[in-house]
Amino acid sequence: MKTVEWTDDDGYKHKSVVRDNDDPHVALEGMGMSQDPPDVTRIDWERVKRDLHNQLVVRGLVASSDVEAQQNGVTGAVLAALRPQVLDLYRR
Hints:
Elements: E1 2-7, E2 13-18, H1 25-28, E3 33-34, H2 45-58, H3 64-69, H4 73-91
Antiparallel strand pairs: 1-2, 2-3
C-alpha cells in the first residue's frame, strides 16, 4: 500500500491509501482509502465567532496594548473557542 497526497481545485490537501500497483489517479478519483481529517465545514463557525468574542472580552483583550501585555492571550482565546469544536468533529 502507498499513500498519495494531492491538492484539489479549491486548495484543500488530501491523502489516500491505494494499492502499490494502482496509478495515483485512483486516489484522485476517490477510490482509495481516505486519510483526511473530519470535514471542518461541519464546525459551527457562528458559535466559534461568538465564543472567541466572549473569550477576548473575558481576558480583557480589547486593544492592541492588551494583546501586547498578554502575549499568550490571543492564542488562549482562539484555542478556547475553536478546540472544542474541532475535537467534537473527531468524536462524531
